[in-house]
């Protein structure tokens, strides 16, 4: 049987909302002051990019642990371009994986990224339904 997620998002006044998560944690969604909000929370479209990075990051971290890879620092940077027409949606996403450390096993880390973005990350699969996604992997020796 397929699993489901249920969230509840409550209006907090103005343009702010509080949303929960199946884990029980909550966060605030708001827009910028120049768009009429208070800038007190996360913006919905940017939150989608965080979901993409988080989904793939969890996969890669799990694979790194399973392969016993030594990584001092790991970051995912995303730049995404929105369409000009309304409603604006992401049309192009550049996702960069950055690994830092002295003992990086580059081929294994590339394999971990590849497994995530091409096999395990469901958010990536969703993104590829509406945007072109480019993925790159970078290694930084300390």
UniProtKB/TrEMBL annotation:
InterPro entries in UniProt: KH_dom-like_a/b, OsmC/Ohr_fam, OsmC/Ohrsf
Entries under SUPFAM superfamilies matching the protein: OsmC-like (SSF82784)
PANTHER family reported for this sequence: PROTEIN YHFA
Protein name from the UniProt record: OsmC family protein
Lineage: Bacteria, Pseudomonadati, Bacteroidota, Flavobacteriia, Flavobacteriales
Gene3D superfamilies documented for this protein: 3.30.300.20
Comp. bias intervals (Polar residues): 22-31
Superkingdom of origin organism: Bacteria
Chain intervals for the UniProt region annotation (Disordered): 22-41
Pfam families: OsmC (PF02566)
């Amino acid at each position: 049987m397929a699993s489901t997620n249920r969230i509840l998002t409550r209006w907090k006044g103005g343009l702010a909302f509080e949303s929960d998560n199946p884990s029980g944690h909550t966060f605030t969604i708001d827009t910028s002051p120049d768009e009429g909000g208070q800038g007190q929370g996360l913006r919905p479209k940017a939150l989608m990019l965080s979901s993409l990075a988080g989904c793939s990051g969890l996969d890669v971290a799990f694979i790194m642990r399973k392969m016993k890879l030594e990584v001092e620092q790991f970051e995912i940077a995303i730049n995404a371009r929105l369409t000009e027409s309304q409603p604006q949606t992401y049309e192009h996403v550049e996702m960069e994986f950055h690994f830092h450390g002295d003992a990086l096993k580059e081929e294994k880390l590339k394999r971990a990224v590849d497994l995530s973005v091409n096999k395990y990350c469901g958010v990536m699969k969703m993104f590829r339904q509406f945007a072109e996604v480019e993925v790159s992997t970078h290694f930084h020796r300390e």
